[in-house]
Amino acid sequence: MTLLGDAAHLMSPFAGEGANLAMFDGAQFGRAIADHPGDTEAALTAYEHALFPRSQTSAATSAANLKLMFGDNALERLLDQFTSGRP
Ligand SMILES: Cc1cc2nc3c(=O)[nH]c(=O)nc-3n(C[C@H](O)[C@H](O)[C@H](O)COP(=O)(O)OP(=O)(O)OC[C@H]3O[C@@H](n4cnc5c(N)ncnc54)[C@H](O)[C@@H]3O)c2cc1C
Fold it and tell me: What are phi and psi of 78, to 5 degrees?
């Protein structure tokens, strides 16, 4: 048994990456199985080793954007982001 997509790394939708990550997880899981023929445990280990680090950046971006859009002074801070030239 293993996890992929939101079941592995649920986050708010404010990075716009959840579906992308879910599809990428599926592809990487398939690749891990192909790379370890007959050894499902090794395939799971390889897949899961990369699974959580892969989603960390998106999860952090999503959390920061959630705070930006629903935190104090959301309108001013969002406007500042759009006009500052920062990503
Ligand atoms: C408002 C919003 C905007 C978003 N925008 C983006 C975006 O722009 N770009 C992006 O990449 N991602 C976006 N996402 C995130 C994306 O939708 C999810 O990350 C993605 O759908 C996760 O896919 P998943 O297959 O892991 O889970 P899900 O899509 O949630 O699929 C899980 C499935 O399992 C089913 N299920 C649950 N329990 C059971 C059960 N017991 N038995 C059988 N079936 C069950 C559910 O009905 C569901 O169909 C957004 C999300 C939201 C809410």
Answer: -70, -45
Distances (CA, A) of 2 to 17, 46, 58, 76: 20, 12, 21, 42
Output the pTM of the full model: 0.89
Q: Which two tokens stand for residue 14?
A: 């404010």
Q: Indicate which residue's Cα is closest to atom 27 of ligand 1.
A: 6
Phi-psi region of 79 (alpha: psi -120 to 50; beta: other; left: phi over 0): alpha
Closest atom of ligand 1 to CA, residue 4: 26
**Which sequence spans correspond to the domains of the chain?**
16-84
The string of pLDDT tens digits covering residues 34-71 is 999 999 999 999 999 999 899 999 999 999 999 999 99
